[in-house]
Amino acid sequence: MLTAYAQLAASMALVGANVGVAKLLAGVLPIALIVGLRCLLACLVLWPLARAREGRSRPSAAALRNLAAQAALGTLLYNAALLTGLRHTTALEAGLVLATLPAVIALGSALWLRERLPPRQWAAAALAGFGMAALTLARLGQGEAGGSLLGNALVFVAVCGEATYVLLAKRLAGRVPVVTASFWMQAFSTLLLLPFCLPVLGAAAALAEPATAGLLVFHSLTASVLCLLLWYAGMKRAPAGVAGIFTALLPASAALVAVALLGESFSGLHGLGLGLMLGSIALATWPRRGRQGG
């Protein structure tokens, strides 16, 4: 189980680290084009990899529907709702809403997947939420005002989309080989993003700059290939409720990259937030008495 936890942690840490990379890319490319090209490049890598490692694996119709739903909710809905919500509310309030993600995943695990969650797992979800809130306050606590109910509601829709993606991935884990599942997830994401990419396709001329093209390739290989492979592999063994706790590493690693790469200052609230999130993961994953991790 320790291996599964390490895979989940590495996946979310890489996703968070890519926030800084996406910020740099967003300065020269439309967001829809960044995400669309990222998914397309991932498909080009995952297709031969799936054939080489897993052969001609053919997911069932039910599995394909599950993967299409993951693409729609975890890629399209999450990005659309989050970015639209940020146009109507403050970054501070949006960050506080995003801090509910571990708790929403834990609740979904209990109600939808019928996983029995011990009290300490609920406590871990709460710690993760407080940790995310502290990081948000540390990075964006300039006293912003003017948030709206509509904007906050849209951000919460994004949270629900990401949480549903995690739960769908758990439901599918073990039924489709990891690389094959990752390929189909990216293929469906590419198709769903195509209508949004076509109107801004001309902006791809910016990729003539080698640094921009290299950054996009790095972003694609880490955010849409390596992260997915690690996440699916970890979800094979870890309960969905516990896996949800690891989403706390997303804003944690994003904050660290912002400090190291973008020059943001590290405050006491940063330290508090990171401490709370590490505590939440330790609480959720500490082996029960009489059981051993593996």
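Next protein, fold it too.
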Amino acid sequence: MLIFKDQRVITGDQQVHISEWFGEVEDTFYKHEKSPHPKVARISNDPNEGYTGVGRTGWHIDGTFQYAPNAYSLYYMASVPKEGATVFAPLTEVIEDLSPEKYAEWDRLWMVINRRTGPIHPLIYTHPRSKKKVLCFHLGLTCDFVYNYRSPGERLTTPQELERILSDINQEFVKDNGRIQYKHNWEEGDFIISDNCAVAHEASPETQTSRSQVGLRVLHRTTVHNPIPPAKTL
């Protein structure tokens, strides 16, 4: 992650232009009438200003519903509330902290977003640029896991296994009082560029606090297309 302070006002056109330094900018599915650009997602605590509830379904990386998750996510807080942090966590460090038994199980798991049409991604895979081990996951979108995809012993998890695995993944991010987390409390002029394949994130509960209590929260997010799908080895 790179955090740039005191950037003043960044327009939608400027954010898209900066994002294009890293590749093709996705045509985001969060299309709000007040978005400053068709490729800028506008997220808010006021439905009249942007989409609400975004990022509150659990720890995740962006774009897991696609052939490849987004390469980068870029964030600019256009209107800063009194509270409403975004929380980040490094994926390689999460994997390195796993017990040998848990790593062995996760290394056999593949994430299923949609049983009919969605992609199937390895839970643990090799980052296309750093070559480090990372996770492809979304705790709020996963409908199933497959053990040993396209290998001997392939099978879907049972409902009980699915519930346990999702709980186990979440626990790795929240254990030890969230030691692995970085909680970014936004200030005016903050701009963040995040390697989406290396850093997971979640919107804190305070992001949903009403405008009347904490003021208006407006987050502008762009995502950059990733041409390389998750793979076990590269």
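About the second fold: The first helix runs from residue 12 to 20.
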